[in-house]
Fold this protein.
Amino acid sequence: MPILRVFEPKILIPWILAMGFGIFVGGIPGLTATMAVALIVPISYYMDPLAGLAMILGVTFTAIFAGDIPATYLRIPGTPASGAAVLDGYEMSKKGKGALALTLDLICSAIGGFIGVLLLILVAPFLAEFALRFTNFEYFWLGVFGLCMSAVLTRGNTIRGIVSAVLGLLVSTIGIDITTGYPRFTFGNVELMGGISFIPAMIGLFGISEVLKHVKDRKHLMAPSISEKMDVSFKDAFPIVWKNKWTILKSALIGTFVGALPGAGADIAAWVAYGVAKKTSKNSKEFGKGCAEGVIAPTSANNAALGGTWIPALVFGVPGDTVTAIVLGAMLMYGLKPGPLIFQQSRHIVEGIFFIALISQLFLLLIGYFGIKAYKAVLRLPRNAVLVIVMIFSIIGSYAIRNSFFDVYVMIAFGIIGFIFELLKVPLPPMILGIILGPMIEDNLRVGLIKTGGSFIPFLIRPISAALIILIILTFFGGNILRLIGRIFRGGRKNG
């Protein structure tokens, strides 16, 4: 059978090695899955096309998972898709349950990825066709919806969360205006014309601010970074996974759908899934305090989103994210033509991609297990040594994005901002969401208004736009609306 070719040594060995490389890349803050794929593509040039695609698929699945390891123990997302993992994963590690959080991460990453790939196989044409119905109007509201999640991600004062999100939006406007070509908020600095990269900003806000917080409190600098044994226990994790099976399914569906929208990606999918899980959970007040459900939702969504990104890439030749943009280039390099005809002209390759993506989830469990164990040695070092390692890798990760020392300065600046925000109890996740979603919201708003001659009406009357507006309203007022309906219902029953 052609599918059994994937177990040939010339495919299997590079595939597994790439997955191990993904664990390394994902665990280093600033080094993204996109960067890992970009490094692998040239290596795969002279390989069998299936071997190259297996390496690309394998490295993305493991890198996305591994990003949760430093997010859980150091509060530094290894990859952008792990941004939501800092909320409850880190809180669980502070309670001595970091190993349990990572075990849940590992299992749910594999399950979410499996569901995403199954949906890719079963409903790729339908989802891709629906995704193509999204125009600038719908993408604008999708961005606003993602940003409104900052309200439900905020512990305590919602106003502070909104302020943080607005500051993130302001940061996202720095640089050359793509519509007019006019520099905004650059103050004559050439480096700022390219805008603020959100990866150095994210490393600074979550990582450097945490380093500064530990330096401020010097009492525990000589103690190990983690006091727990860090044993990966599937026996303890499986009952929790089963208890939250509907959260996993719901988050995986959200992840696949968001991933299928060109330009959205795994990072947005994780935030949206976390927000939806919190809004619909019976234990919503526990989110952000070390809740297992808060760990399960984003990790199920971001790996499922990887399957979703392949839907428009394979069916229409439209990249779902930066990784699949590189993949499309690699396919052309292999002599493959992505699009509707690929299912007829290169059927064996498509079947191989599907099979590799499914089997990668099983390999993820094994390789991820050893990856967690490998990080144990580093995390058992004294905290001051770990903080030095964090600083070194944060600098390397920030510099590697654009080979620019300016990004290192950006990271340090946002580290100081994050430290001050923590003291003022201003939440950091909404600011990151604002930086990520700002360009998407602004660009689609402006292009949409240009299309309509300045009229905002099409933004409101299109069916998908209207549905997203309703979701935004429910995000802020859903609880109050349900309570009001409940009172009316109870009052009517009493009168009856």
